[in-house]
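Subgroup meeting minutes
Present: P.N., E.W., G.H.
Scribe: E.W.

1. P.N. recapped why we're keeping a running log of single-chain structure predictions: easier to compare across weeks, and new members can see raw inputs and outputs side by side.
2. G.H. added today's entry (112 aa).
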Amino acid sequence: MPLCCWSLRNKSRTFPWEVPAFCEDCGYPHTWIEARLDTARDLADQLGLDIPARAWPGRSIEELVRDTPRVPAEAVRFKAIVGNAQPWALGAFKEVLCGVVGEVAKRMIWPG
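Output recorded in log:
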């Protein structure tokens, strides 16, 4: 949990207000995002991937949530790795991540 959270405490109370996923001061994920990232990492550990491929899902997941310019590349990598795992994997990740990844990643990983 970020120790600063200054950016959340000092936001305007005007609505609509979109809460950032990561602290604007230190870059650490807020608690609700960290919980989803931990769950996604746990799912990645359960996929039974070989060791070289196992290094990618954790990094890809965080990039997808951060909504960086790397999203298209990470979405393709993530879908390829997870899609080659268990048949339930993409659906399970959708349940965990769909509310926190950006629209580009959603369309690329879970079209339709």
